[in-house]
């Protein structure tokens, strides 16, 4: 089996590469892919760069070029739900693109003809995440993640995304990765640790907590890999 682990920023995969220690680096499509064997399975790891376009390219490459059969995303996110604080973990149940707008034709926000508004994540891995959380003595919240090509640092925009998509957290890559995995029949799991509250202090909070929250997420994702291999 080959499992892909992706992030968007270098900081989001650094803890994973550090844990693995040894890996092979391959350049492909203007990005670096890191391959390692871990407890008898093949891993392919990469950070995509920021946003929906780069994350689409990377997820597609991991599946179509490197042959990944499952994909786990690890990273940070802005909180919408009041119950999510910096460092807390959220597992996506389903994801939507909050910046996709063809409402002029009477469609809802996030909707694409023949696509839909949401893409659902793999139920088996969501179930596993509950066991992993129990094993680790941590809590993970399940929720809806909204994705768009903007760093949200505005209460009004955040609240709009929250009410329009019933979303609990927001980021810039999850929904595009979800579309790719869904289309190619690859089970996927999107985990994020909160770095900020997508409000006027978001950029400062993000800079302060990116690294520590990325570590929280990466540690959990590696425990997910362990659970998959059980
Ligand atoms: O990959 C992008 C990163 C911010 S942009 C999306 N990631 C972090 C999640 C995220 C997020 N997305 C939208 C955390 N908080 C968010 C928020 N809105 N409030 C970036 C950051 N630093 C340098 C360059 N780009």
Describe this structure in words.
The model has no long low-confidence stretch (mean pLDDT 98). The protein has a 5-stranded mixed β-barrel with strand order 5-9-8-6-10, surrounded by 6 helices. The protein has 6 helices and 10 strands, in the order E-H-E-E-E-H-E-E-E-H-E-H-E-H-E-H. Helix 4 links the parallel strand 8 and strand 9. By secondary structure, the chain is α/β, with parallel strands linked by helices. The protein has a single domain, classed as Nucleoside phosphorylase domain (Rossmann fold). It binds ligand 4EH. Residues 8-9, 50, 76-78, 151-153, 170-173, 195-196, 198, 202, 206 line the site of ligand 4EH.
Offer a few descriptive terms.
5-stranded mixed β-barrel; alpha/beta; Rossmann fold; binds ligand 4EH; 38% helix; 6 helices; single chain; 230 residues
Give the structure's gist in a few sentences:
The protein has 230 residues and is of the alpha/beta class.
């Amino acid at each position: 089996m080959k499992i892909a682990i992706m992030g968007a920023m270098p900081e989001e995969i650094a803890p994973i590469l550090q844990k693995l220690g040894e890996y092979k680096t391959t350049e492909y499509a203007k990005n670096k892919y890191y391959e390692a064997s871990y407890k008898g399975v093949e891993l392919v790891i990469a950070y995509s760069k920021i946003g929906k376009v780069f994350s689409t390219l990377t997820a597609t490459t991991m599946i179509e070029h490197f042959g990944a059969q499952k994909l786990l995303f690890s990273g940070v996110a802005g909180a919408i739900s009041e119950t999510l604080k910096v460092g807390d973990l959220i597992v996506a149940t389903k994801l939507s693109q909050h910046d996709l707008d063809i409402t002029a034709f009477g469609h809802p926000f996030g909707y694409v003809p023949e696509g839909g508004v949401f893409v659902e994540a793999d139920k088996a891995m969501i179930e596993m995440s509950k066991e992993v959380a129990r094993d680790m003595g941590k809590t993970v919240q399940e929720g809806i993640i909204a994705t768009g090509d903007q760093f949200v640092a505005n209460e009004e925009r955040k609240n709009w995304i929250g009410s329009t998509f019933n979303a609990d957290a927001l980021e810039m890559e999850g929904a595009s990765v979800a579309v790719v995995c869904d289309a190619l029949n690859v089970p996927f799991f999107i985990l994020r640790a909160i770095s900020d509250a997508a409000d006027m202090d978001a950029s400062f909070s993000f800079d302060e907590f990116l690294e520590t929250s990325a570590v929280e997420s990466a540690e959990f994702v590696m425990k997910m890999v362990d659970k998959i291999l059980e």
